[in-house]
Structures are given as structure tokens and as C-alpha cells.
Known about the structure:
This protein has helices at about 5-30, 35-40, 110-115, 155-170; strands at about 50, 70-75, 80-85, 95-100, 105-110, 115-125, 125-130, 135-140, 145-150, 170-175, 180. By secondary structure, the chain is of the alpha+beta class. It folds into 2 domains: about 1-30; about 35-180, Sandwich (Immunoglobulin-like). β4 (about 95-100) and β5 form a beta hairpin.
Amino acid sequence: MNINSFTWGIATLVLAFIIHITMVLAIPHLSENDAWRRLQNLTKPNQMQVIENLQKGNQLWAFHAPDIKYAVCRYDVTRAPVQINFQILRAYWSIALYDDEGRNFYAADGFDLLRQETSLQLLGPDDIKDNKSTSLPISVPSEQGIAVIRAPIDNQIMEENALQSLKQASCTQLPEAKRIKR
């Protein structure tokens, strides 16, 4: 093996590595069937939707657990803050917020929230928190995103209660909003 073959071999490996990393990083942005697009077809902005009867063909994202019920809200704080109200029946229920790129920026479970009735107020970059509100204020990194409430089901009796609680959850845009004038 001469030095020229060795140099070409190393150059080929480096180029293959660069192409591989580029493709791995680009594929999520080039995908046409991601969770965000599937949610856009299933939900309306700022409305809570309970996801029932999940099966292999209609999953919103990969690896849905069969013993968990979900409620999702595709929020949009472009015009005003969004308030999410929900009830936690068990301490291990959780809520997670994702931006429109699918990055998780907030998560809490029943242990963290320490209350059964919970209210979150999602604030855009120019929104000002209303001091009269008892909602937990959360500043969102992008104007659109997804809120996911997860309710693990430990028995069949609990399933009906969980579905009823998830159906009562709400995601609404607040009519009155104080914004920073720019």
C-alpha cells in the first residue's frame, strides 16, 4: 500500500462521514410526514383533542404506549396567549410542551404541579403576564407548538375516568392580551 492509496482512503472516509452527518441532520427537516403535519390534519389551532383508539397505522409519533391515553393541543400564540386547563387524576400524569420543531421545552407531572386542577398560560415573546391570573405562566420559544397531556391507565376502571378527564381539558386563546408595544 503506497502513500497515495492511503491518502485517498482517508479522504474517502472523511467525505463519507461528512455526507452521513449532513443527511442525518437534514432528514427531519425534509420529512413530509412528521408529527407536526399529522397534527395539523387532525386538530384545529388552540383546541384540545383527545386521541383515542391508537393503532399502528394512525399513530401521531413513534412509540405510542398502548396503556396511555393522550390529549393534544396545537397551540398558536401569534395573536394572544393560550391557556391550557386540565385535571390531574393521578400523580404520574404529565404534560409536555414542544415547539414547532418538536423540541421539548417544558414538562411536568402531577408530583411537580402539586394540584389536581391545573392551568398553564402560554405566553409569546411580546405577551405580558396578567397578575390577576392564577395560571402558571410559561414563555414559549416559538409562536406555535404542541401540548401533550399523558394519562397512564393502570386498569380498565381507570380508563373511563381518564378519558372523561381528558375530554374536559381545554386549550383556548385568551381574548384580552397585554403586549409589549414595539
